[in-house]
Amino acid sequence: GAGVSQSPSNKVTEKGKDVELRCDPISGHTALYWYRQRLGQGLEFLIYFQGNSAPDKSGLPSDRFSAERTGESVSTLTIQRTQQEDSAVYLCASSSRTREIYEQFFGPGTRLTVL
Amino acid sequence: AQSVAQPEDQVNVAEGNPLTVKCTYSVSGNPYLFWYVQYPNRGLQFLLKYITGDNLVKGSYGFEAEFNKSQTSFHLKKPSALVSDSALYFCAVREGSNYQLIWGAGTKLIIKP
Question: What is the largest CA-CA distance in chain A?
């Protein structure tokens, strides 16, 4: 597709369960970012991929959070043993290394609700 | 340390009036500045960016922003507000070749008919 896609669009889970969120970046975009946005708040950086490697994982809130990227394409964000505080919209963005400074293109997000 | 401040949580403007959403930044090198908009239940959309050149940058939906180096500001403006401009606006800055965008907390813009 032409834009960044994310799935599922909505996820409701029970506390303690694991969830996996998926991001399909724009084809050819080497950089990929995950953010968390709590209701009515700004963006919280989670992790950044350049290609398949993640040089910056500093934003991951705990060891329950992990992410991977394969084939310089799809990325998955996994949250283990979910807690109610994990409820938020998880946004994925991708960008391209071009001569001009590269803007980030965002997906529609996955709304996660932990009951 | 890099930072972005959006000093107003909410801005209220009457339809047809000019609007300004404020943003100030702090970086040690050359800043690259961005504005994004988030409509209700929709993803973030790019509005405009400043990289170099003219201080006045024009973007989508009639918005523009003025880069002011001495005041380290990048305020978003529109001459005549529309009700459909009501949304959440985010300012972001990147320093030089640093990959990461630093985001402001967002400003809710409400345009009243």
Answer: 45
